[in-house]
Amino acid sequence: MAKLRARDAIAQYERILGDLKKRTYKPFYLLMGEEAYYIDLLSDYIAQHALTETERSFNQLILYGKDVTTPQIIDAARRYPMMANQQVVIVREAQNLRNVEQLETYIKTPLESTILVICYKGKTVDKRKTFYKLAEKQGDILETVLLNDTEIANWVRDYLKEKECTIEPVAGMMLAEYLGSDLSKIANELNKLFILLPQNNKHITAEHIERNIGISKDYNVFELNNALSKKDVLKANRIVVHFAKNPTDYPMVMTMSALFMHFARIARYHFLKNKHRGQVPQGEAAAELGINPYFLRDYDEAVKRYPQTKTLEIISLLREYDMRSKGWNTGFADHGELLRELIFKIMH
After folding, report:
1. What average pLDDT does range 279-296 have in this prediction?
2. Are 140 and 16 part of one and the same domain?
């Protein structure tokens, strides 16, 4: 089975939300996967719109997986609504249930008057089992996946577009690098930014990010990679010194991950250039590297400064220093010293 792509997961979400907005409800929803943002959006929409405010008092029940058993959920789902046509039962953190598959005894013959929502975050149920197949047949399923850096940058752009707001590419990458793949956190920060922007200028820049979120536009892993691509020794060392002085804000594990991804992309770009004998179509190159085409020029510079053999040597170095940062053969060097040593070896 092909791996689910982020855009397919978002399309699933939009389809289900579209049905809900038409008040087309299924008796059962299985909302599962690594990205909690869309799971929360759908379960919150059902909680807020399936019943009227008066009906919710007697006919809406919110349960938590760590506090209930599967039989208790089934009992709740089999109750009939009071003075309403439907009841809603939402089970949050259902990944904490011991035997979620036991719900199949209810899903075989669900009550049409119950909307049962299972929020199964951080992982997925076994698709080979009867539980999943019944959920697919009797209800609706949302499966989510984590977005990569480029997908997050695109997601940020689309999220702001709905609010008639734009963001410069560098600012989008800063957010992706700093906040990671947690869409709920990113949405919260964007909402704060949106409120702070002047009414006549809905365009987010790196300066806005630095001033309001606390991400330095000069000292971050995105700028470190940029300095390495250009072999800007002075800039790279300034950033590394700043990282070493602020280890809590710039953990070594995050820096190593960003460096590895950057040089892995440089290695892939070398492969593409060899494949196309130097001239790679811009769209194909950006898609293969998983980057915004705006940043392709940085990789054009990088492949000139780091030949293929040197790039592979650097990837090997990154693996070594990742191990050392986790305690292997470290000696007395702290993370700041290790990073300075690594950056020197990369650029020389």
Report:
1. 81
2. yes
* Whole-structure pTM value: 0.74
pLDDT digits (tens, 9 = 90+) for 170-191: 888 777 777 777 899 889 888 8
Query: Does the CA dihedral 289-293-297-298 come out positive or negative?
Result: negative
CA–CA distance, 88 with 62 (Å, rounded to integer): 8
- Answer with the one of 94, 116, 144 that is the final residue of a domain: 144
| Closest of 83, 141, 82, 81 to residue 107, by C-alpha | 141
Same domain, yes or no, for 203 and 89? no
Q: In whole angstroms, what is the distance from residue 117 CA to residue 124 CA?
A: 15
Query: Which 8-state DSSP code applies to residue 197?
Result: S
283's CB contacts (< 8 A; 6+ apart) are 293
**Mean pLDDT, range 114-141, rounded to an integer:** 94
User: Domain limits at 121?
Assistant: 6-144
CB 38, CB 142: distance < 8 Å: yes
pLDDT one-digit tens code per residue, 189-203: 888 888 878 777 788
End residue of a domain, out of 144, 165, 188: 144
Q: How confident is the model at residue 331 (pLDDT cuts 50, 70, 90)?
A: low
Contact assessment for residue 63 and residue 97, using Cβ atoms and an 8 Å cutoff: no
Question: What does the alpha-carbon distance between residue 129 and residue 17 come to, in Å, rounded to a whole number?
Answer: 26
Is residue 229 located within the same domain as residue 326? Answer: yes
Contact 53, 31 (CB under 8 A): no
| DSSP structural state of residue 341 | H
Quote the number of domains for the chain. Answer: 3
